[in-house]
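User: Can you recover a sequence for this backbone? Please restate the input before giving your answer.

Assistant: Of course. Working from this structure:
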């Protein structure tokens, strides 16, 4: 059983049918109950969607992943429903940092600093209730001018606000997919001299070997894990049903 898993994608150029195309490599990184990291899977080249993610989650289950407490994801289409279908008690948290980046694309430079500062009143709020109040204020201020920037926050609020259910040590880990993005930055160092891969399989093999080497250094638990696991085990927040699943 994994306390937290992170899903994210990294893109590479691959030859296919005589052309060079951009393909995604999807990574699932888990943190177990001891706070140790583990790459649970790599998938290259397939288009994301409900069927693909159901296949991925089924594969994880078949490999021995019996339960996931919290899944932290980027806006990967079809993934939340697929995770819930296989692990029905999971909590989904969308990456707040990705959401900020996506929103900024629709804001003119002259307003971007002010908009980002306003967004911080949402994800930096101490409670979900305060965050929702600030979200309404932002909606009133910006929605008429830049509806495309505000729409994702409103439409995805349920999965964006999950981290407010937890104490700060857990919030700091799950509000972003930074853990798996750090792994992807290490992938870039390994693949930097390879502009184009000849096949999906060639890309997969290089990433697989990179994981094998990188994971040898993962000998210590997450630096805040003692605080995290005590909160999870004790269930000191109002959603206390986690504690029995940690046994």
């Amino acid at each position: 059983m994994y306390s937290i898993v992170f899903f994210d994608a990294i893109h590479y150029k691959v030859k296919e049918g005589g052309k060079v195309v951009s393909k995604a490599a999807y990574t699932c990184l888990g943190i177990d109950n001891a706070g140790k990291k583990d790459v649970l899977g790599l998938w290259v080249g397939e288009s994301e969607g409900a069927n693909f993610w159901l296949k991925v989650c089924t594969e994880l289950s078949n490999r021995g992943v019996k339960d996931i407490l919290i899944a932290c994801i980027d806006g990967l289409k079809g993934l939340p429903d697929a995770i819930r279908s296989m692990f029905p008690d999971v909590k989904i948290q969308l990456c707040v940092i990705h959401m900020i980046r996506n929103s900024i694309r629709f804001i003119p430079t002259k307003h971007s600093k002010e908009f980002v500062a306003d967004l911080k009143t949402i994800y930096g709020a101490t409670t979900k209730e305060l965050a929702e109040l600030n979200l309404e204020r932002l909606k009133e201020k910006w929605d008429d001018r830049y509806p495309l920037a505000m729409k994702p926050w409103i439409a995805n609020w349920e999965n964006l606000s999950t981290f407010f259910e937890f104490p700060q040590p857990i919030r700091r880990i799950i509000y972003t997919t930074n853990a798996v993005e750090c792994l992807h930055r290490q992938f870039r160092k390994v693949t930097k001299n390879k502009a184009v891969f000849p096949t999906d399989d060639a890309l997969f093999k290089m990433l697989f070997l990179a994981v094998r080497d990188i994971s040898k250094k993962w000998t210590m638990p997450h630096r805040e894990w003692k605080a995290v696991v005590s909160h999870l085990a004790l269930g000191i927040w109002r959603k206390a049903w986690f504690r029995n699943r940690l046994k």
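That completes the design. Residues 98-160 form one domain.
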